[in-house]
Amino acid sequence: MTSRYAMLIDGDWVQASDGVFFGSANPATGEIWAEVPEATAEDVDRAVRAAHRTCYEGPWAAMTPSQRGQCLRRLGDLLSERSEHLGEIETRDSGKMFKETRWQAKYIAEFFHFYAGAADKIAGETLPIDKPDMFVFTNREPLGVIAAIVPWNSQLFLTAVKLGPALAAGNTVVLKTSEHAPAVILEFGKLIAEAGFPDGVVNIVTGHGDPCGQVLTSHPMVARVSFTGGPSAARHVIGNSANNFAQVSLELGGKSPFIVFADADLESAVNGSVAGIFGASGQSCVAGSRLIVHEDVADEFLKRMTEIAAGIRIGDPMAEDTEMGPLCTHGQIETIEREIARAQTEGAQLLCGGARAEAGPLFYQPTILECPSPDLDIVDTELFGPVLCVLRFRTETEALALANQSEHGLAAGIFTRDVARAHRMAQAVRAGIVWVNTYRAISPVAAFGGVKASGYGRESGFQAVYDYTRPKTVWMNLSEEPVANPFQMR
Ligand code: NDP
Fold first, then answer.
1. Same domain, 284 and 385
2. Could you give the 3-state DSSP secondary structure of residue 258?
3. How far is the CA of 173 from the centre of ligand 1 (A)?
4. Are residues 211 and 335 both part of a single domain?
5. What residues make up the domain containing 195?
6. 214 C-beta closer than 6 A to ligand 1
7. CATH no. for residue 410?
8. Has residue 479 got a pLDDT over 80?
9. Residues recognised as catalytic
10. What is d(CA 125, CA 128) in angstroms, rounded to the nearest whole number?
11. How far apart are the C-alpha atoms of 145 and 175, rounded to whole Å?
């Protein structure tokens, strides 16, 4: 039985203006389990206009920051209460394991709670101005309409890190879901009114990159685009901003180095690396997909890694004992196959995996590939799947050079017991997030984002709230004297 969804525009659940739907397939079974509206340019325009109106008129504009915070707190509570249901929908939609989506939905509540607390702490400042009789201060005002664009992996999480700070700061949002897994965000949208947000504060449109994403990010009423996805769509977003002057923040992919020194706690490092590359079937922007391991421990490390990888239980992402589910799209698996075949012709050696798994057409085996040189294309190509590229090193200088030989710079993992080396490496590695003796840890308190081709701007953390505001400078003349006529000399 196919579920049919509607989009959320100005508080109403609506179909596309031309009545067209598209299907969402369950990656584990291939079954089209949901149909969602294919938003037209007219629908997107209506959503942006509703968000714009709501930002400046009506109950949202009149709410105090504490009242906005209360809505966000309630939204977090509702998310936590419904985590089981939302996790199930996200798994059906994206193929991500239920164990993870259920846990994530519960934890995401913490992000809304964090930003609920932040709403009434967004303050301006008074300025020690260099003019007599002037009192000058700044207010932090919302930017206006935020276009939030999310990819299919971890959509709830990526939605939370955009919505939390944007709404705390008093903006309104038009969110575009991924075409590959649109239903979970529409389910989440049902909580918006229940949490007490007025109509039009959060609008959700479903559709493809073109026209839906294009029209949204080029709309003249959009003040900021918060984009998470790949580099190609990101370039369109940047191009569009040349016309509407919207601010842009980009969270793009990575090929993150996972560096293991000879003095590392090997068990911990192996487990960290397994989680870093095979968690979420490698479909994670922060996947630790480039293992850079010291020559002295490399053989032992890879022996343990391949044993674990070969034993990973692949199958139904809803089952509690499954350890790896499917990939989300056919395109990904085809890219992986093509890149691995090419790397092998260039001398890369398969240590395990390297083929589709039996569970179904979108399942791929955990794969470890030893690469003779960092210059192989696969070493710096994001595959978004369970494929680990391995490079060996002898010295710290060499490890650092390998880590930084990348177009990307999202995250890095460093495993060592030497504190001074950990600090040296953490400073020198060019990445937005560095994990030492741990991997993939996140928190609403900590900023998240990359450098180089991994994007710019930061999400999460308190600073994110300020990024969704602009200062307004107010000059007050306190003098009793009349303002002098500039054309009459005294
Ligand atoms: P895409 O870049 O293809 O899509 C991301 C979003 O952009 C989707 O909603 C997509 O719509 C939309 N989009 C596509 N074209 C346009 C356009 N011209 N204008 C506006 N929006 C557009 O990425 P994927 O869905 O393939 O997601 C995987 C990528 O996301 C990886 O590179 C991954 O690393 C990155 N990512 C980054 C994270 C981070 O925090 N740094 C976190 C998670 C993922 P549609 O779905 O309809 O194509």
1. yes
2. strand
3. 18
4. no
5. 3-252+450-474
6. yes
7. 3.40.309.10
8. yes
9. 251, 285
10. 10
11. 10
In a domain, 442, yes or no: no
Q: What is the pLDDT of residue 488?
A: 84
Could you give the 3-state DSSP secondary structure of residue 56? helix
Distance 56 CA to ligand 1 centre (A): 30
Does 209 sit in the ligand 1 pocket, CB within 6 Å?
yes
| Angle, vertex CA 33, rays to CA 29 and CA 38, nearest 5 | 125
Confidence band, pLDDT 50/70/90 cuts, at residue 490? low
> Considering the entire predicted model, what is its pTM?
0.96
- The CATH number covering residue 81 comes to 3.40.605.10
Please give the DSSP secondary-structure letter assigned to residue 324: B
Kindly state the tokens that stand for 318.
């809803």
**Per-residue pLDDT averaged across 369-381, rounded?**
98
Where b means 16+ CB within 10 Å and e means fewer, 89-99 reads bbbbbbbbbbb
Over residues 129-161, the pLDDT tens digits come to: 999 999 999 999 999 999 999 999 999 999 999
173 and 60 in contact (C-beta within 8 Å)?
Answer: no
Q: Is the CB of 230 under 6 A from ligand 1?
A: yes
167: three-class secondary structure by DSSP = helix
Q: Evaluate: CB of 385 within 6 angstroms of ligand 1.
A: no
pLDDT digits (tens, 9 = 90+) for 279-306: 999 999 999 999 999 999 999 999 999 9
Which ligand 1 atom sits closest to the C-alpha of 216?
Answer: 20
pLDDT higher for 489 or 412? 412
User: Ligand 1 center to residue 151 CA distance, Å?
Assistant: 4
Closest C-alpha to ligand 1, atom 39: 251
149 lines ligand 1 (CB under 6 A): yes
Residues 232 and 304 in one domain: no
Residue 54 is predicted with a pLDDT of: 98
Would you say the CB of residue 185 lies under 6 angstroms from ligand 1? no
Q: To test ligand 1's pocket by mutation, which of 38, 178, 283 has the most ligand atoms within 8 angstroms of CB?
A: 178
Q: What tens digit of pLDDT does each residue of 415-456 get?
A: 999 999 999 999 999 999 999 999 999 999 999 999 999 999
Share of the chain above pLDDT 90, in %: 99
Which runs of consecutive H residues, i.e. helices, occur in 245-329? 266-278, 295-311
CB of 178 closer than 6 A to ligand 1?
Answer: yes
Distance in Å, CA 43 to ligand 1 centroid: 21
Integer-rounded Cα Rg, in Å, for the chain is 24
Q: Are residues 210 and 265 located together in one domain of the fold?
A: no
Rounded CA-CA distance 56/332 in Å is: 42
Kindly state whether residue 490 falls inside one of the protein's structural domains: no
Number of domains composing the chain: 2
Tokens standing for 184?
A: 């979970």
Asked if residue 313 and residue 279 are part of one domain, the reply reads yes
